Amino acid sequence: MMFLRSPGSSCRALLAGGICLVVSACGTTYELPDSGGVHSEEAARLFAEARRSPPPATLSRSAAEARFARVEPRVMRAGRETCQRLRTGVNCNVDIAIDRQMTERNAYFTYQNGQPVIRISLPLIQDTGSDDEVAFVLAHEYGHLIGRHVEKQQQQVLAGALIGGALAGLVGDSGDAVGLGLGVGATAGGIVYSQSYELESDTLGTRIAYDAGYDPVEGAKFFARSEAATGTSGGYSIWGTHPPDRRRVATVLATKAQIDGQVGLRNVR
Ligand SMILES: [Zn+2]
């Protein structure tokens, strides 16, 4: 089921859910770890703690730039190695940079002229409490590349448009059904993926952040903070596209336990 948070979302979720029944592209590529039991309990504790804690002091722009400069090369190297080792078939050479136009606290993965890029805004970095948090955000976005989430979502949207168009032909209502399909996740930075894709990115991101020498559990605390879903100029913030969710923290904990137990990533059969 798609997880959509805009007006008319129930209709879109129903349509997208229907698409998922007929398009195999909706599933994850890699197995998600079992995030129940002790991981779920520990996630609840960490989540509550993150909610209670005061937000970290806002970094100056120069301190945020320095944090990005420290973290980016390490995450890029670890992400590329993971991407190449998994033989995903995607272009593993991602361009990671600060999006200086973006005033919201946001980060995203997209393609620009066929080149995979990860962008993060300076206001987001200024609000991080540690290098681990920036590393986890960037590593999570790298997970969207390795999971081929943009390609899969485009296939779903296309299938939705075809199904919507076919339905519209049957019921004689032209615009809405097609518009419904094509409207999903149209702009970079505002893409809302299905929850299973987010969890897959968390699984991959945990491994990449760890390989880059960071603490993924510390880093994931960033996502547990309570913040507005949109910024002051109306654009999505990272919490709009990545709703805080205990299951995400539990997935990070479960993946870390797999790493500690030397359990590797497994493809979904
Ligand atoms: Zn994501």
TrEMBL record:
Cofactor(s) the record lists: Zn(2+)
Protein name per its UniProtKB record: M48 family metalloprotease
All copies of domain Peptidase M48, residue ranges: 98-254
Keyword Protease: yes
Cited Pfam families: Peptidase_M48
PANTHER family: METALLOENDOPEPTIDASE OMA1, METALLOENDOPEPTIDASE OMA1, MITOCHONDRIAL
Co-factor binding details: Binds 1 zinc ion per subunit.
Keywords: Hydrolase, Metal-binding, Metalloprotease, Protease, Zinc
E.C. number: 3.4.24.-
Similarity-based family: Belongs to the peptidase M48 family.
Molecular function in Gene Ontology: metallopeptidase activity
Origin: domain of life: Bacteria
InterPro entries named in the record: Mito/Outer_Membr_Metalloprot (IPR051156), Peptidase_M48 (IPR001915)
